[in-house]
Amino acid sequence: MVVSKANKSLLSSVFKSRIRTTGESSIASGNRDIAGTSQAVKDLLCFKNSSSDLEEVPLQDRVSNLLHVTTSEKTSLEKNLFLKIPSFTTKIPYDISLRSKELSRERKEKRVYKKNGLSRRFAKIFRDSAQKLGTEAMFGAFNRVAKEMSVTEYNAMVGVYLEHAEKSNDLDYALGHIEKAFELLKSMRDRGFLIEERVYGPILGYLIDMDMVEEFQSFKDVIREASPGSVERLGYYEMLFWIQLGDGEKIEELCDTIDGDNRESLSILQENYLLALCKKDQKYHLERLLGIVDITKVQSSDLLTNIFEYLGRFSLDSVAGKFLWELRESDEGVKNVSELISIYSTCTPNPTVEDTILKFNKMHEELDVMPSSTSYEKLVKYSCDSNEVVTALDIVEKMGEAGLIISADILHSLLHAIDEVLEFDLVRRIHSIMCTKSVKPNTENFRSIIRLCTRIKDFEGAYNMLGNLKNFNLEPNSSMFNCILAGYFREKNVCRALMVVKQMKEAGVKPDSITFGYLINNCNREDAITKYYEEMKQAGVQATKRIYMSLIDAYAASGKFEKAKQVLVDPDVPAINQNELKSVLISALASRGKWADALHIYEEMRKAECHVDPKSIISLIEYSDSNGELSTIVQLADDLQDDTSWIDGFFRMILFAVRNRKSSNIVDLLKQNKVRLLKKDLPVETHFDEVFWAIAETEPTKVQLGMDLLRFMKDELGFVPSRKCLDFLLHACVNAKDQEHGLLVWKEYQSAALPCNVLSFLRMYQVLLAAGDLEGAKALVSKIPKDDKDVQHIIEESHSAFSQAPNKKKPKKKTIVSSRKQKNAGLCTSLDR
């Protein structure tokens, strides 16, 4: 949905009116020391108890004070903001939920954050503050001390406001937060701080996506005034903006600044214009510009990459070939030819990996250049992303034979792909690659190899990898040993797991919190839990969130439920981790029969508006008390917000209803959630298969419910039932001895264009036997191929089981038998076909 021009104009005028001219700018030092927490943040973190000595209060406690502000304090903060930001007075009924969420996902996929540890810490502080206090209260509290804030704190606050705007479904709310981000940027400008692209880029991207013309110009002006060196880069966003609006005149105006007649290098601004055109596949404008640009004069490697990606997407072989030959003849350009070939060949639409490799080799031969390590690396990554892991391994082995460097990044792509496709045995081929002299692994590569070895129970191979570390001047670390430790615990081999800890100490590697987490989590006695926890403290290892989670799980597994609850009241547990630990406690209690206690904790958290991990809510649904009310389980499913968690929880609720004879409202619940079930990329049909399986396995079997669900899938959702779905439903008919519905299901195979296989006929044979139609069963079984011994065995067992069972549905009239004969004749005809 797009904002109307009238609304845009009104919003823009209100927004623009708040922009103050630069005037007298109080320029502060641009080289503020951000090595530690600024006095501003210290003051804020302690605002709950302002009389306390800042130097004596640990940072962790200050954060706790901030995040545990009471309701009355929160209200007071909201009423006493020192710097009030005017809000939009115009209420516009406008739902931006679908568009803003899609755009937000796209931006987050493309966005790369390059933050140091300090800025990440501040961003987390501001985000948690906004969650606890509300953004209005947070903004006021932080602006009380704005004059003392460093550029790092400004950047973090701007990021939080943008996050809230992106996530919002309400336009007024989103624009309010964009306004506040704008005020912060103006404050940064007035204090002489530079505004970096990692800060302004995401904001301009949001304004571009939302078609906000005057707002975009206002932000751009402030950024240019604060950071004069960003003028050329702002040209990139300006071109993106006019492309988004579809303003051909403005695009043409910017394109006219690119003149290739003088054959000189493009300016940085011109290269940014071209980059935006390539990003947005502006074929009309690029066709003209690429015809006049001297490719050898392009200085930006990013622009070269995007030009060849664009050429690949549109399969412009002649243009790509011309450019590559020109670069081939250039002293500097020849260095990039092989890499650009790999970029072009891997961007061609809809080829197979084999075709891509053929094109890659052919272009190298035609241009008489040798493939470089970098170009092979891109080809390996392309193959891995296409799940062609064996092909990728072949390429890497070829690199080793040619003496090319096999980088740590190449190994990472291979190992990640092996993990993704679950073909863990392929890690054995990595062993031989590691023996080549040209391989340059890092410790993370070794950790991944060791972990994959344990997945195939090749512990000898894992230890061999530890021994190979010295060949690359690398040292073993705790994460490598932890992988072996976890592998032995998975195999329930506690003795070998404990031996790993001993080997760590012998190798001079200190166990870390993850090591102790594994040890604690696999204890089934209280004394063992206490022992490892004390050992951890004596070793000087600080308890982490993972340790507290392990304690909760271990105590619950050993039946010490009160001990599990007491972990939360430990004074050493950071307040910031309370919600996550409570979520773990909910799962631990629910999965071990303490469902009522788990539900009580959840309801308390929900009442206090605390965040609960969706996995914990799903645990409550999965392990629900069979005597519980369905309405409670329905509410739990409704509390799941994101679609992935909701679809999982919703169908677990359906399964609960089926298995506990509470299925009368299932179809109504499905109809109420029809819109959400029709969303793209949700595995709805797979979940329906599980429901039909539950119907088939539950006694007494409710075939009518299965038929109702089948009708809902077809008529309301437009789904074609899967073979699994029909197989399970036919199996339900066997259990219910329901011939009438069995024949209806049989017709559904034909409607769904699913040819009936031998298993389908065997199930239908069992339906007829179970229903007492021995004549029809005899006619049907005569058509089933009996070459397979297993098929013969099933037929014999079925006849023995069902023919001896008491049958209450024996035919009383000839007309009924005749009718059955007609129906079964159809079955036999189907088999003949």
Automatic annotation (TrEMBL):
Pfam families (alphabetical): PPR, PPR_long
PROSITE patterns: PPR (PS51375)
Alphabetical list of PANTHER family matching this protein: OS02G0132600 PROTEIN (PTHR47262), PENTACOTRIPEPTIDE-REPEAT REGION OF PRORP DOMAIN-CONTAINING PROTEIN (PTHR47262:SF2)
PPR repeats mapped onto the chain: 477-511
Originating species: Arabidopsis arenosa (Sand rock-cress)
Residues in PROP1-like PPR domain copies: 380-532
Keywords assigned: Repeat
Disordered: annotated span: 799-833
Protein name: PROP1-like PPR domain-containing protein
Residue ranges with Basic residues bias: 807-823
